[in-house]
Design a protein that fits this description.
With about 90 residues, this protein is mainly beta. The protein has one domain. The protein is built from 1 helix and 6 strands; from the N terminus they run βββαβββ. The two termini are about 25 Å apart.
């Protein structure tokens, strides 16, 4: 059996509590990016996010525990859906 070749970066979604009542109905957190070619054991990059609560499951499915060769550029169009510029 062939050994699976790992991609360079590993993505991890961390949800954080939002205490501000103005953001009721939203979920927030950060995406941590780990470089598997690095000897460091901590994230080499992270990006914060706030998404409507109804999008959080799709957001997690798209990014959580994914391996990628290129860090994706993410943009949000709040009137439509999540738009991932660089495909995973």
């Amino acid at each position: 059996m062939r050994k699976k070749k790992h991609k360079r970066y590993f993505l991890n979604v961390i949800e954080e509590s939002i205490q501000n009542p103005a953001f009721f109905g939203y979920r927030g957190g950060r995406i941590e990016v780990y470089d598997q070619h690095s000897k460091e054991k901590y994230a080499v990059y992270e990006a914060s996010f706030v998404v409507p609560e109804e999008m959080i499951d799709d957001f997690r499915k798209c990014f959580d525990f994914k391996e990628v060769d290129k860090i994706p550029r993410i943009e949000f169009d709040m009137g439509v859906t999540l738009n991932v510029i660089s495909k995973i």
